[in-house]
Amino acid sequence: MIERGKMMDKEKWHYETLAVHAGSGPEEGPASLVRPVHMSASFKLPEFGPELFDALLLESDQPPHAYSRWSNPTLRSLEDKLAALEGAESALVTSTGMAAVSSAILGLLKAGDHLVAQDVCYIGSQELFGEYLAQFGISVTMVDTSSLKQVENALKDNTKMIYLETPANPILRIADIQGVAKLAKNAGARLVVDSTYATPLLQKPLALGADLGIHSLTKFINGHGDTLGGVVLGSKEIIKDLRKSMLVHLGPAASPFNAWLIARGLVTLPLRMEKHCANALALAEFLVSHPAVKRVFYPGLKSHPHHQLATGQMSGFGGILTFSLKDELSAAIKMVQRLKVLTYATSLGHPHSLVFYYPTDMYIDQAAYLSEIQKKEIRENWMDEGLVRISAGLENIKDLIDDIDQALAK
Ligand SMILES: *Cc1c(COP(=O)(O)O)cnc(C)c1O
Questions:
Q1: Closest Cα to atom 6, ligand 1: which residue?
Q2: 262 and 273: one domain?
Q3: 93, 94, 98, best to mutate for ligand 1 pocket (most atoms within 8 Å of CB)
Q4: Which candidate, 41, 246, 270, 272, has a CA 20 to 30 Å from the CA of 202?
Q5: For residue 113, which of 90, 138, 131 has the smallest C-alpha distance?
Q6: Is the minimum distance from the CB of 123 to ligand 1 under 6 angstroms?
Q7: How many Å apart are CA 294 and CA 289, to the nearest integer?
Q8: pLDDT tens figures, 21-75
Q9: With a 6 A CB cut-off, is 195 part of the ligand 1 pocket?
Q10: Is residue 35 part of a domain?
């Protein structure tokens, strides 16, 4: 039904070409160059026989469409695009990034299993590990995954998964994917990497040995700040299992309309990432030399503790930077109030530059699942008393710098 001949060349194509062509091209019927949105809950089923069984039982990784909680042409088109960009065999699109995270974890772990997870990462994931997985009988040890020693020491006989995020939201710690992948392999555990900050363009967790890659599509991949989405990427086998177990039974399917918006946004990801990265680097360099600023974190700065690792593992340093101010949180609150171009808002990877501050005492000190040693390390090395995160948008860099400069002026 969906014309796939063009996909044959995808191994030779570059990002820009894949972002436009993968998962798209005319379908049967009117040869519309841009795929329509398939707003249909159900699909006419194949005749009695193997195709019907595949559609109903999801026996193959690309079964005929039967019902949109299981699969849908618009979602599959986006899945094909994402798999092509990531270099993955298969992809499962979900309604949100957290649906991708929770589907990967609940789909692959069961009661009695142990998970080694990152101590500071996206707050939704961090709280899932620290506060909620215990109620499913999954035990969790949360460590700094940028330390191979800590990861190794946390492994147990029943460790079935290592979960990390790199670069980490919000503190921009970098983990050595290849190093952790080796530890996971030796331990018989699967490695899952949330690569949202890097996008499929700047980092390839699967090629570095991870079993599954995850992205929040809400961020850079959609890139327009108008819808939520998530994806899990990996082998045909695992993705098929996750579709059968999690998508069918927990139901985190994305709306075809949202998937269509994301596929549309994704077309310009290579162009946008260049601008996000350039703006983030320029802002980082500006802030380093600003007298009100205490410390700046951006993986592309030589001063970043993991700059070396980031240089080897990533092909660009991303659109996010963080910094602390000499006058700490109160100065950050005042600065944010005065900003006119940058917007005080959560999320990242939007066309708008977004700024968000983290009160270290609320964010870290009140987390019951972190040890005193962890809290001290995070505060001293990454957050100070209040961290400001900027997601560099697509505006003119001079306007962004002028805006921050006026907001920091006494
Ligand atoms: C935002 C984010 C998520 C969650 O994605 P949603 O689409 O908001 O559910 C997961 N991981 C990272 C790194 C994120 O930044």
A1: 97
A2: no
A3: 98
A4: 246
A5: 138
A6: no
A7: 10
A8: 888 877 777 888 888 999 999 999 999 999 999 999 999 989 999 999 999 999 9
A9: no
A10: no
Instruction: Tally the residues of the chain.
Output: 410
> Ligand 1 within 6 A of 218 CB?
yes
Cβ contact 78:262 at 8 Å: yes
Tell me the two tokens of residue 67: 């019902």
Where does residue 268 rank: exposed (0-12), middle (13-18), buried (19+ CB within 10 A)?
middle
Residue 228 CB less than 6 A away from ligand 1: yes
Q: Is 169 in the pocket of ligand 1 (CB under 6 A)?
A: yes
Q: Is 230 in the pocket of ligand 1 (CB under 6 A)?
A: yes
The full DSSP string for 324-370 is EETTHHHHHHHHHHH-SSSEE-S--SSSS-EEEEE-HIIIIIT-TTS
Evaluate if pTM is beyond 0.85. yes
* 255 alpha carbon – ligand 1 mean position (Å): 17
Q: Looking at residue 182, which CATH number applies to its domain?
A: 3.40.640.10
Q: Are both 261 and 290 inside the same structural domain?
A: no
